[in-house]
């Protein structure tokens, strides 16, 4: 028993430290890595609590899928487009503090109800062992007594599917892509129609996403051979 | 069946941590470190990069990732049903069919909308 408590404190400590790292790290990628560490520690706590299925689900869904989403957002959004993390707008800070407080109150209320009124439901460790383990018990309970929540979850996921489609509407994506192509067509050698080769060192230093075309307002093309240079459409358009 | 059965995993984690940090620390103190500007470049013998290092990606990737999360959660919900299939009988089958059916509607919708096409 004592060793379990010790392991729990170790895992919980690392989880909290990693969670603090998520908030305190200045680099968003470091935040994401901290979040992975926190999720894995929470999964280990589930294992200590004998909730193996929950632990595996935590790993697959949170450390697997949610982190992918977080990192995708970081990839899709330019660094300078990200909101200032530690800017300290007073209103934003107050709202964040209140939301955190509300979450803390909810968790505290849940723990208090649980400890005052005892374990809800009829599943004791012995009953779980009798039906053949964790997943058996979850399956039996989920698909009989929790019929409505299951279907509500399906509806929620359906709404998420449609929402995802709405946010990344293909038509809009095409428009944005066209703009991005115009912005990000870059020449390694020299602009179209200019015959004097410009040494690479003299090209203007890229200002992370704000490249100025070296040849006035003409668009520049990436070319590897001389043939490519003459009638090549801007990057990406040739593939369609 | 207790926590002791996870001792092997714990041992593995501890061993991996100790070995990893030891190797990195040994390398840190043993290797010579004489940096020159040329050595510190990403490509020591290549053309300097004029592209911004963080290129933009199509939001399409994000859509695929989002759909992956949704169907990942669906799969997680189907595991317990599959394990308890015998005990749940017809009622559970109908439940799961309804669950999958609702998400199938979403899949058909995005298929129809062309979200699964990669231009």
TrEMBL record, chain A:
It holds the Pfam family Oxidored_q3. It is an enzyme of class 7 (translocase). It is found in: Cell membrane. One of its GO terms (molecular function) is NADH dehydrogenase (ubiquinone) activity. The chain crosses the membrane at residues 6-25, 32-49, 55-77, 97-116, 146-168. It comes from Thermalbibacter longus. This is NADH-quinone oxidoreductase subunit J. It catalyses: a quinone + NADH + 5 H(+)(in) = a quinol + NAD(+) + 4 H(+)(out). Belongs to the complex I subunit 6 family. The keyword Secreted does not apply. NDH-1 shuttles electrons from NADH, via FMN and iron-sulfur (Fe-S) centers, to quinones in the respiratory chain. Couples the redox reaction to proton translocation (for every two electrons transferred, four hydrogen ions are translocated across the cytoplasmic membrane), and thus conserves the redox energy in a proton gradient. Its EC number is 7.1.1.-. It is a multi-pass membrane protein. GO terms for cellular component: plasma membrane. PANTHER family: NADH-UBIQUINONE OXIDOREDUCTASE CHAIN 6. Keywords: Cell membrane, Membrane, NAD, Oxidoreductase, Quinone, Transmembrane, Transmembrane helix.
From TrEMBL, chain B:
The keyword Transmembrane helix applies. The keyword Transmembrane helix applies. Keywords: Cell membrane, Membrane, NAD, Oxidoreductase, Quinone, Translocase, Transmembrane, Transmembrane helix, Transport, Ubiquinone. It catalyses: a quinone + NADH + 5 H(+)(in) = a quinol + NAD(+) + 4 H(+)(out). Its main location: membrane. Pfam families: Oxidored_q4. NDH-1 shuttles electrons from NADH, via FMN and iron-sulfur (Fe-S) centers, to quinones in the respiratory chain. The immediate electron acceptor for the enzyme in this species is believed to be ubiquinone. Couples the redox reaction to proton translocation (for every two electrons transferred, four hydrogen ions are translocated across the cytoplasmic membrane), and thus conserves the redox energy in a proton gradient. This is NADH-quinone oxidoreductase subunit A. It comes from Thermalbibacter longus. The lineage of its organism: Bacteria, Pseudomonadati, Thermomicrobiota, Thermomicrobia, Thermomicrobiales.
